[in-house]
């Protein structure tokens, strides 16, 4: 028996909106730790890892570890039927082949049940070891989204370089080139407006903008995005989900031919 | 431009 009651149902709606175009189907895993997912995009270039910790749920019952295969567009379609202020409860029976999403309006005058068929998904689970990153950039998530969107009008790839001067996002296309430099600025009025760069060594990596743009669909989940870079590793683009966990996107770099 | 690496080249299957 599984029963997870999330007061802030909009969080789950936003999570699905942020991953449904990147990943078509995935196993959601539920254990005492929480509700989680790890999935790759169909070309195995990017990976998404989601964790919603059990403490973040108003009620969290998970009698045994369970893995539920879902088609994400279908799940997103059902969650779109929940109001932004609704409480969402996820329910499933052990060994069952369906999951139920229950939506309660804030004043309890409307209760809806949506039952969705589960599917068997043979997915590869990857072990991601803790890593030391050469540079970690924290910046407003809206600023990062704007940069990715702007650069993708010029080119297909972005070179992210971190030096003492700041973080530089560059691209090149048929019509020309673009460079956007963001300097550390920790002395702003609001902490969520700050750009903070922790650099151990300069680093420069190239990534496909198509994926970066897809990751920025998680912008509504967090004011701040953290970008961790190391020359031998995929970049990690992390959005913290208020008091509950995180959504992390890993993207393998492109290398010179 | 460039060769796109795969995520599975970096992380092991568990």
Describe, in plain words, how this protein is organized in 3D:
The complex is a heterodimer of chains A (257) and B (14). Chain A has helices at 9-19, 72-79, 141-152, 209-215; strands at 2-6, 25-31, 34-40, 46-53, 59-62, 66-71, 87-92, 98-104, 111-117, 126-127, 135-140, 157-163, 166-172, 177-182, 196-199, 203-208, 224-229, 235-241, 245-251, 254-255. Chain A is mainly beta. In chain A, the strands form three sheets. Chain A has a nine-stranded antiparallel sheet. In chain A, strands 5-1-7-8-9 form a five-stranded antiparallel sheet, with helices on one face. In chain A, a hairpin with a 4-residue loop joins strand 13 and strand 14. In chain A, helix 3 (141-152) runs antiparallel to helix 4. The relative contact order of chain A is 0.18. Chain B is built from no helices and two strands. By secondary structure, chain B is mainly beta. Chain B is rod-shaped and about 30 Å long. Classes of the chains: A mainly beta (257), B mainly beta (14). The A-B interface holds A 40, 43-47, 124-129, 156-157, 172, 206, 208, 233-234, 250-257 and B 1-14. Strand 10 of chain A pairs antiparallel with strand 2 (12-13) of chain B.
How many strands, which pairing sense, and closed or not: the largest β-sheet of chain B?
Answer: none
> What fraction of the residues of chain B are assigned to beta strands by DSSP?
25-35%
Radius of gyration over C-alpha positions of chain A, nearest whole angstrom: 19 Å
| Mean pLDDT value of chain A | 96
Q: What spatial form of chain B do the alpha-carbon principal axes imply?
A: rod-shaped
Order of helices and strands of chain B: EE
**Broad structural category of chain A:** mainly beta
Supply the number of helical segments of chain B.
Answer: 0
Rounded Rg of chain B? 10 Å
The total beta strand count of chain A reads: 20
* Residues in helix, % of chain B: under 10%
Query: Reading side by side through the largest sheet of chain A, how are the strands ordered?
Result: 6-2-3-4-19-18-17-11-15
Average pLDDT for all residues of chain B: 90
Please give the oligomerization state of what you see: heterodimer
